[in-house]
Specification:
Length: 125
């Protein structure tokens, strides 16, 4: 069966269904190659038609805290004293460049996520 372009929702859903059926295909087989091509086509379609906005920086920090069971006290090496951590988490104080660097290095939150707009800054954008 010939691979069709993914150009609308119908062909997108058909490609997803076919991908689902090929998920157990081995690499370096015709089925594995077909899976690879279909996934590439679906990813391109999703990037154009279903883009995902980057996460809010504060939501990313909160998520990492929740994921790691981290408390405000655990955040002091990255953000500063507890009152400053609360100010940042409550969007009262912006992240500084040094905070971003420490969070990126210590908690492995991508810096490009941390520099994104949030709070009042996001509303103005």
């Amino acid at each position: 069966m010939e691979i069709q372009a993914v150009k609308d929702e119908a062909s997108y859903r058909a490609a997803l269904a076919e991908i689902d059926g090929l998920m157990t295909a081995r690499l370096d087989t015709p089925e594995g190659d077909r899976l690879d091509v279909l996934v590439t086509l679906v990813q391109a379609y999703e990037a154009r038609h279903h883009p995902i906005d980057p996460p809010d920086p504060i939501d990313a920090i909160r998520f990492r805290m929740e994921q790691g069971g981290l408390t405000v006290a655990d955040m002091t090496p990255y953000i500063g004293p507890p009152h400053r951590v609360y100010e940042v988490l409550n969007r009262k104080r912006p992240l500084t460049l040094n905070m971003i660097r420490r969070l990126a290095a210590g908690l492995h939150i991508p810096a490009d996520v941390l520099i994104g707009p949030y709070g009042a800054e996001a509303k103005a954008a």
